Amino acid sequence: MSLWGWTLEAYARPGVPEVCLELQDAYGQNTSYLLWAVWAEGADAATLQAAASAGRSWDEAVLKPVRAVRRTLKAPFEAVADGAREGLREDVKAAELRAERVLMEALEAMSEHRRGGQPALAALQAASRAWGAPAPDEVLARLARALG
Question: Where does the source fall among the domains of life (predicted)?
Answer without folding.
Answer: Bacteria
